[in-house]
User: Fold this.
Amino acid sequence: MASIHDVARLAGVSISTVSYALSGKRSIGESTRIRVNDAVEKLGYRAHAGARMLAGERTHILALAAPLHSGTSEPAHMAFVMSVARAAREHDYDVLLLTQDEGADGLQRVALSRLVDGIIVLDVSDQDERVDLIRSLDVPAIFVGVPRDSAGLVCVDMDFEAAATMSVERLAAVGHRSIALLGQSPALYDRGSGFPRRFRDAFLAAAADRGMAAGFAMADRDPANVRQALDSLLGTDPGVTGLVLHTDEGVQTTALGILRERGVRMPHDLSVLSACSSFSTEHFEPPLDTIPLVPDDSCVPAVALAVQQVGAPIAPRVELIPPRYVGHGSVVPPAA
Assistant:
């Protein structure tokens, strides 16, 4: 079977020129392109990804393991997928998207087929079954998320613990002593998804450290479920003056609507903060203070590390993105 070396030799050009002529990623002269195409046709060359990998060359493809689970917020999920795809293009890489909820099986098939140069792993759980597989594969891999056992892995993620602590500290700083957290869909906690558990645990711990009362409830997209969660947080303790929303945009919209229906004046009666949100909160009524979750903050460095690993191994590490606070006036001192 003819190789890219044979094509380059027959056409009288470099291997990189053949690659550019076939992929169209770089501009080359028309006469050169014709010589390359003639050589390809004469030799019957087929540059499929597996052959390139077997020849020790890069495929310039990254696998993105982004399974769609029950309870997944699709807008937020796709924001991370698109961020990875854009970052990959900056490195002249394409992305093979794996969305099946099949654990390690899909990754193993892709890795053994040698179709990809590296792997990006999204939607990381505490006890992620993909961890052991990644450790056994001879393929560079980056986790956008942090499993409980991160030994030997390269991980990049938002510092959800720091974000939760920042939420509590902001409310405490203006005088709130009784606060509540409206969390993600129960399906995410039941599945062991890492980020909601990390935020919840750090939130409750930070409140306890400061001697603050703190409640927690989960909510999915069903308005009745959101209403029930708010009842459990606010109905039994009229002393709650600060509410943190760590859930998707639809649930936050529903929760604010229910509060307005009940005559809750925000922020006069209740300060509200949107934590780790991948969407703008300026259109809410009222606009909410937020700790943004920006997909590019973690996905861009994750892709860069994956590409770096293709060239040479890098030391295992966990890189946490520090949170930042954006105020819109929805957190104020509690009313006397």
